[in-house]
Amino acid sequence: GDISVLYPSAESDAYIADRIYNSLVFTIKGDANNDGKVDSYDAALIARYDIGLIGAEDLNLAVCDINGDGTVDSYDATLVARYDVGLLAA
């Protein structure tokens, strides 16, 4: 169907595509602080979370369970740290 029926104020498909793109949230597995990169700071945040120094509100838990075991813990922090120094491929 014609998408302009759903979005009568839109002037073109480019406008609609731009609106959709801007509404998406991109995340990178391991990027605990959502700064667009996976580095040692992310590993430190995960480790701090694991020992209770920071809470879940201080990091993006959805991308911190690197090994997929259902918990965010020091092993995930280790995997992020190994990736940061080149010992683990993406």
Question: What can you tell me about this protein's structure?
Answer:
It is a single chain. Helix 2 runs antiparallel to helix 3. With 90 residues, the chain is mainly alpha-helical. The protein has three helices and no strands. 22% of the residues are buried. Helices cover 37% and strands 0% of the residues.
Global shape: elongated
**Kindly state the mean pLDDT as a whole number?**
87
Could you tell me the strand content as a percent range?
Answer: under 5%
For the secondary structure, the number of strands is: 0
Helix content: 25-40%
Number of distinct helices: 3
Unreliable stretches: none
Structural class: mainly alpha
What's the Cα radius of gyration?
A: 18 Å
For the termini, the CA-CA separation is 40 Å
The ordered H/E elements are: HHH
The quaternary structure here is single chain
Q: Summarize the main sheet.
A: none
Secondary-structure blueprint:
Elements: H1 13-23, H2 40-50, H3 74-84
Features:
90 residues; mainly alpha; 0% strand; elongated
Summarize the structure.
The chain has helices at residues 13-23, 40-50, 74-84. It has 90 residues and is mainly α.
